[in-house]
Structure formats: structure tokens, C-alpha cells
Design goal:
Elements (H helix, E strand, L loop, with lengths): L2 H9 L6 H12 L5 H14 L3 H12 L15 E5 L7 H11 L4 E5 L9 H5 L11 H11 L1 E5 L6 H11 L7 H14 L4 E8 L8 H17 L3 E8 L7 E2 L1 H12 L5 H17 L6 H13 L2 H12 L18 E6 L4 E6 L1 H10 L16 E4 L6 E2 L4 E7 L5 H10 E4 L8 E5 L2
Parallel strand pairs: 1-4, 2-3, 4-5
Antiparallel strand pairs: 5-13, 6-9, 7-11, 8-10, 8-12, 9-11
Helix pairs in contact: 1-3, 2-4, 2-8, 4-9, 4-10, 5-11, 5-12, 5-14, 9-10, 12-13, 15-16
The structure holds uracil and calcium ion.
Length: 433
């Protein structure tokens, strides 16, 4: 087989065989196929697309390019949730203990944050003592006993995707549905998921800016999942404004605890219930989404979700008593209110910009080596659609530096107050096929 023939075949709009796709991925991973040929093929795929069989073959070839996590010693259907990324996205912190409380095993491999979107591990490390440096054996044991554990990234997962994603980034080929869908799905499958629930974000804070693009990506991923034997569902959710009220590591843990107590923000709670219901159904613990939602409601009302969170933290050496007393979480030195400059209705809170403001306070990393400040961040008091009077507080800034004029200016620029406006739709669509 020759790479140049594969490139020409795709350039001319023909479908590649599984063998050709495997030849490309294996050769590219081990260095036999150079970047210039790989980028040429990526561009051909960008223009000519791939059919369902090609997408499934590409996904599995990338899965098999490196280690695959074996979770077969964990009882039950391992369901993983993936979000395409957002600002102040506290869902994983709430979902993991919540669905575990109704019996769905959550064996989560997680990463740290980079840029203005936070990482689940960073957030959890706000809890004194908590860590994710556990052995794979311990991880499996904890999930079997307590239904939930989180481990840091281990193994050499999907090296083909790492290499190809880096190449796409500099060759104008990131924005291709077959390439994005196979990239995301390969990582979930290599991490051991039997079933996958996807939260595809749309809006200015998201990778996919329009609902149409988000829907196309969601359909593509759901089809790949189901074609390779992983039950997969997706929702399309809004990421125009930040999710929930808290943005920042410790602040989001506090928000997660409040949500597990049934006192969380409306949008975060609704998103958690929607995604959680899907996880419970694909995890085989309920027959339909209504039954699943009722199970989750009961777990919040009877306190079992919160107790599962406490046990989970303690199992990984964290101070579980934070669930009774959130003031044990790291606190920033200064709390400053950002006041509205005019009266009206909030019509826009640009998620990306608010994420950048939070990073300026020290809540996020600019490079992989940066230290982050777990205590700082933002707490929104108003969301899109809310009325506000001039002089009323829009949000509280938690900082360890006194001088935050640049952060205040950035935030005022990213919040729009007009005469009238409505709250956005949070869940645009549910995609099961
Ligand atoms: N996120 C990924 O993991 N892969 C892509 O290709 C795009 C976004
Ligand atoms: Ca939040």
C-alpha cells in the first residue's frame, strides 16, 4: 500500500477501506508517514468528508494506536460523560456522585484545565487532601465498592489523535466533522467507556457556534459510538453564558455541593438532570428517561447523592466534611462586588470573556506548567434574562490581589444590559440516533 494512492483516492471523493485507514494511522503514529502526507489527507477529508464506515474505522484505528484502559473488572456498564468544553461547567462534579448514588459505576479518568476552561481534577483538589494519584487496582476497587472514583491520566492513550490533532491545528483542518468526531470518540473509548453520553455545547463560549453545527457533530458522534458497539446519546446545550453561577475551582466545588443538596442554580440543575437521566438509561438502571429522572430526584432529596460525594472524597484522602461546611474550602482574601452601570435586562454574558477574566484572577493556566489559585473566581448574581437596577451587584469577584481594575473592565465589557430580553433555551435537543 502507498500513502500517495490513499490521498488521491480521498481527494477524488472515494471511500477508503478499513485497511487503508489502518495503514495511514499506524504509519503516521510510528513515523513512517510524514506530516506533509498526513496533512494532505486531512485536507482531502476536510473537503470530501467520510461515510459512516470510514468514520468508525478511523475512530477504532486511533483507539488501537495506543493503550486501552481495561475496566472489565468493574461490575456493570461503565458510562462516561463528555462535554465539548465550557466555562464554569460544574456538571461532572455533580453528575459523578449523583449517578453513582443510583448505581451507575463512574470510573472517570480526568485531566487538568488549560486556558479558561477548568479541569475536574483541579476543582477537586480544592478539597484538602484529595488526590487522583491512585493505582489502577485501587481505582477499580473503589469503583466497585463506592461506585465512583477519579484517576489522573495514565497510559499512552490515542497517540495517533495527539499527533493528528497537533497537525490539524496548524494546517486549517481542525473544523471537520469526521475528524473532530473520531478524535473525541477515540479518547472516550480508549479510556474504557462501554457507553457514552455527550454534552455538545453551542453558543459563543463553545467550539461549535451554531446549533446546526453542534447538531451535525452530535449526530456524527452518536453514530460512531453506536456503530462500534458503544451505546451513545447526546444533548445540545447552550454555552452562550457561563453555566451555573460559580466560575473558579473551589467556588465550583461549593456550587456542586449546593446542587447535590437540591439548592443549586436552575440551569446547572437542569443540565445535570438531563445528562444524568441519559447516563442512568444507558447504564441500564432505568427503562426510560422519566424513570431515570425520578431516581435522580430521589437521590438528591434523600441525601444519598451528597453522602456518595462525601465517601468519594474520603476514599481519595479528601476532607469529606466540606459537604457539611463549605467554608472549609480555600477562600480568597478579597470579595468585590461588580455593580451594574445602568438599569434594564441582562441580554448577554459572554462566556469566553468571563472565563478569561477568571483566568486573569489566577483560576486558570496559560501554560501547562502554571500554578493555579484554587480560591479565586467569580460568582454571578444575575444571568441572561434577569432584571437589574443600576448600582445592584452583577457578580462577586473573589481575588487575592487588591487591584483588579483590569478584571472589572473586562467583565463590564462582556455583560450587556438592554431594555428587554429573554433567558436563553438551555437544552436545544436530545439526540439518540
Ligand atoms: N476536541 C478534540 O478532542 N478533538 C478535536 O478534533 C476537536 C476538539
Ligand atoms: Ca458553574
Amino acid at each position: 500500500m502507498r500513502m500517495v494512492d490513499i490521498i488521491e483516492k480521498k481527494r477524488d471523493g472515494q471511500a477508503l477501506t478499513q485497511e487503508e485507514i489502518e495503514f495511514f494511522i499506524t504509519g503516521y503514529t510510528n513515523g513512517d508517514i510524514p506530516d506533509y502526507q498526513a496533512s494532505s489527507l486531512a485536507m482531502a477529508i476536510y473537503f470530501q468528508d467520510m461515510n459512516d464506515d470510514e468514520r468508525a474505522a478511523l475512530t477504532m484505528a486511533m483507539v488501537n494506536s495506543g493503550d486501552v484502559i481495561d475496566l472489565s473488572n468493574i461490575n456493570g456498564i461503565k458510562v462516561d460523560k463528555h462535554s465539548t468544553g465550557g466555562v464554569g461547567d460544574t456538571t461532572t462534579l455533580v453528575l459523578a456522585p449523583l449517578v453513582a448514588a443510583v448505581g451507575v459505576p463512574v470510573a472517570k479518568m480526568s485531566g487538568r484545565g488549560l486556558g479558561h476552561t477548568g479541569g475536574t481534577i483541579d476543582k477537586l483538589e480544592s478539597v484538602e487532601g484529595f488526590h487522583v494519584e491512585i493505582t489502577e487496582d485501587k481505582f477499580v476497587q473503589l469503583v466497585n465498592e463506592a461506585k465512583v472514583a477519579v484517576i489522573g491520566q495514565t497510559g499512552n492513550l490515542t497517540p495517533a489523535d495527539k499527533k493528528l490533532y497537533g497537525l490539524r491545528d496548524v494546517t486549517g483542518t481542525v473544523n471537520s466533522i469526521p475528524l473532530i468526531a473520531s478524535s473525541i470518540m477515540s479518547k472516550k473509548i480508549a479510556a474504557g467507556a462501554d457507553a457514552i453520553v455527550l454534552d455538545v455545547k453551542t453558543g459563543n463560549g463553545a467550539f461549535m457556534k451554531t446549533i446546526e453545527d453542534a447538531e451535525a457533530l452530535a449526530h456524527a458522534m452518536v453514530r460512531i459510538g453506536n456503530n462500534v458497539g458503544r451505546n451513545t446519546m447526546a444533548i445540545i446545550s447552550d454555552m452562550g453564558q457561563p453555566l451555573g453561577n460559580a466560575i473558579g475551582n473551589a467556588l465550583e466545588v461549593k456550587e456542586a455541593i449546593e446542587t447535590l443538596q437540591g439548592k443549586g442554580p436552575e440551569d446547572l440543575t437542569e443540565l445535570v438532570m438531563t445528562l444524568g437521566s441519559q447516563m442512568v438509561v444507558v447504564g441500564g438502571k432505568a427503562n426510560d428517561l422519566d424513570e431515570a429522572r425520578n431516581l435522580l430526584k430521589r437521590a438528591i432529596e434523600n441525601g444519598s447523592a451528597l453522602e456518595t460525594f462525601r465517601t468519594f472524597l474520603e476514599n481519595q484522602d479528601g476532607d469529606g466534611s466540606v459537604v457539611d461546611d463549605v467554608s472549609k474550602l480555600p477562600q480568597a482574601k478579597y470579595q468585590t462586588e461588580l455593580l451594574a452601570e445602568s438599569s434594564g435586562v441582562i441580554t448577554e454574558i459572554i462566556a469566553n470573556e468571563v472565563g478569561v477574566a477568571s483566568m486573569m484572577l489566577g483560576a486558570g493556566r496559560q501554560t501547562k506548567e502554571d500554578d493555579i489559585d484554587l480560591s479565586v473566581g467569580l460568582e454571578l448574581h444575575k444571568k441572561v434574562g434577569d432584571k437589574v437596577n443600576a448600582g445592584e451587584s452583577l457578580l462577586t469577584i473573589h481575588s487575592n490581589q487588591e487591584q483588579i481594575d483590569d478584571v472589572k473592565a473586562k467583565l463590564l465589557q462582556s455583560i450587556t444590559i438592554s431594555e428587554s430580553g429573554d433567558a436563553p433555551t438551555l437544552i436545544h435537543k436530545i439526540i439518540t440516533e
